[in-house]
Design goal:
Layout: H1 29-43, H2 45-48, H3 55-68, H4 71-77, H5 85-101, H6 103-114, H7 117-121, H8 132-144, H9 151-176, H10 181-210
Helix pairs in contact: 1-4, 4-5, 5-6, 5-8, 5-10, 6-9, 8-9, 9-10
Length: 214
C-alpha cells in the first residue's frame, strides 16, 4: 500500500445523529473506498485475533488515531454500505458522538425505552444492553483499535442500545403527538433511522460471526 499519509478530513457535521455528512470534495471514490476498508480493518486487527497483512500500516494508523482521534478517519466510512465493516464502524461512531453531544436527551430516551423489557429480550446476542455511559466506553475501545473482545458481541450490543433509544424516541413522539405534531413527526423519523441502524448493526454482527464482514 502507498506510503502517502491518510488525508485529514474535517469532523463530520452533527446536524442529526444519523445524518451522514458529506465528505470534502477532491477524493477519488475508489481511493476513498479503499481507505475506508483499510482503516476499518486496521482498527479491528486485534478483534480478528490474526496478524495484519501490513503491520507497519496498521501501526501508523493506530498511532494516528491515538494522536489525533478517530475523527480524522471517520469521515471515510460515512458512504460505506451498511453491511460492511466501515459502515458498521460509522454507526458505532455516530452513536458515540450523539451520546457525547446530547447526553441528557439520550439518557431520557434510553430510560423510557429500556423500561419495555421485551426490547432487550428480542435482541439476539445482546442480553445485557449497554447504557449511555457503557456505550461510549464500548465505542471508544472499538474505535481506538484497542478492543480485544468479540466484535460481533460489541456490534450486537451497539445495535441493542440503538434499538432501545429508538423505542424511547418513538414513545416520546407518541406523547407529544397531540400538542406538538411537527416535532413528533421529526422525532418519529429519527426513531425510524435509529431502528434502521440497529438492524444494520445486527446484520453486521451476524456477518462478522460468519467471517465475511469486510
Amino acid at each position: 500500500m502507498s506510503e502517502t499519509p491518510l488525508p485529514r478530513f474535517k469532523r463530520p457535521v452533527m446536524m442529526d445523529p444519523f445524518a451522514a455528512g458529506q465528505l470534502p470534495g477532491g477524493v477519488d471514490p475508489a481511493v476513498q473506498a479503499e481507505l475506508a476498508h483499510s482503516s476499518a480493518q486496521a482498527l479491528v486487527t486485534r478483534a480478528r485475533r490474526q496478524a495484519p497483512s501490513d503491520p507497519a500500516m496498521v501501526r501508523r494508523l493506530l498511532d494516528l488515531v491515538q494522536a489525533e482521534g478517530v475523527e480524522i478517519i471517520a469521515g471515510l466510512w460515512a458512504q460505506s454500505p451498511a453491511d460492511s465493516l466501515p459502515g458498521a464502524l460509522w454507526r458505532v461512531y455516530m452513536l458515540r458522538e450523539w451520546v457525547r453531544r446530547d447526553p441528557s436527551t439520550v439518557a431520557e430516551r434510553y430510560k423510557a425505552g429500556v423500561s419495555r423489557q421485551a426490547v432487550a429480550q428480542v435482541v439476539a446476542g445482546a442480553e445485557d444492553p449497554p447504557g449511555p455511559d457503557e456505550m461510549i466506553k464500548l465505542a471508544d475501545a472499538v474505535l481506538s483499535g484497542v478492543f480485544t473482545g468479540d466484535l460481533d458481541v460489541a456490534l450486537s450490543r451497539a445495535g441493542a442500545f440503538a434499538r432501545i433509544v429508538a423505542t424511547g424516541s418513538a414513545m416520546e413522539a407518541d406523547w407529544m403527538h397531540e400538542t406538538r405534531s411537527d416535532e413528533a413527526s421529526v422525532l418519529t423519523g429519527r426513531a425510524a433511522a435509529l431502528l434502521d441502524n440497529a438492524e444494520a448493526l445486527d446484520r453486521a454482527a451476524r456477518r462478522w460471526r460468519r467471517g465475511d464482514l469486510d
